[in-house]
Amino acid sequence: MVLITVPACGNLETGDCNYITGYYQTIYQAQLAYELEEFEKAYNLYKTAFSACNPISTPTYNEIGKYAEVAARLGHNDVALSYITKKIRMGSELKWILQDSVFADVFKTEEGEKLIDQYKRIREEYVNSINIELRVDIQEMSHLDQLYRDSDDPSKVAKQDSIDSLNTKRLIEIFETYGYPNQGVLGHNSIDGIPTMVSTMLLHTEDSIRMNYFVPKMNEFVANGTCDPTVLGSMIDQFHLYNGDPQIYGTYRGRTSRYANMISNRGLINENRKEIGLPPLELAEKIDSLKKIKYPDLFPTYDN
User: Exposed, middle or buried: residue 7 (CB in 10 Å: 0-12, 13-18, 19+)?
Assistant: First the structure.
């Protein structure tokens, strides 16, 4: 079994900030405090992370939204409003935020009412800022990515291989031109209701190109805060699983257990995870267990 070490890279967009070493782990601790309803602790942890790196919204953690919520719960309406505004400028729709009763007092303030009045203009500015042409391009690539994916017909398998090759070449062009095409580039799902991302296509890249080009590139994107660490971990774990080796980050779930085939040394796994910005397994499991109490239908049940 070959273990792949992915060295952390400096932030490419925000000066000295490296999200792997200076941001993600604090966000995970903040999420745990949030789930435990230790809102003062969560508030301070989010504040610490945001003072180290520009705030982002990591998928499944939504730290900007959570910080706005805990700020509102603690009566820091000015802070809550500031981060609500950030969410809106990142594509969130005001109508859904207004439905959350935790923000009721925030929008009763003069500044809150002003944000409501300014929302249409802010939304227009946001829509005009994203790359609609690239969004449509990636949606078409994603459609083709699944066109013959489950077929056993040799001719269709060959067609899918050709599509994967063309998509790979286009992804390289996109990475070199735009960096990682996240929601900041492609737009929020609220644009057209169509999830638009490249993560699934990255799992269909040829092994040598994946490990020699995409993995180093993705590590840069994780370090500069433009890509979720789970995307990088999944690319590498799938490579190992498909080549008959155990996964080294624990990003793949098993059919009847929390994890698919995984190396047995949890200490080593946690070191691997920390190197690419993922939380330790125990912390991730604790957060999931707390979420499961609140949202049982979102989490599968395992036999062991």
Answer: exposed
- Residues 96, 65: contact at Cβ < 8 Å? no
Sign (positive or negative) of CA dihedral 288, 292, 298, 301: positive
CA 236 to chain CA centroid, nearest Å: 16
Tell me the two tokens of residue 235. 């690319």
In whole numbers, what is the pLDDT of the chain averaged over residues? 92
Residue among 126, 121, 123, 76 nearest 102 (CA): 76
| pTM of the predicted structure, to 2 decimals | 0.90
What tokens were used for 161? Answer: 């291989």
Nearest partner of 185 among 193, 174, 194, judged by Cα: 174
CA distance 203 to 260: 17
Q: How confident is the model at residue 294 (pLDDT cuts 50, 70, 90)?
A: confident
Q: Give the pLDDT confidence of 35-67 residue by residue, as tens digits.
A: 999 999 999 999 999 999 999 999 889 999 999
As a whole number, mean pLDDT of residues 146-155 equals: 94
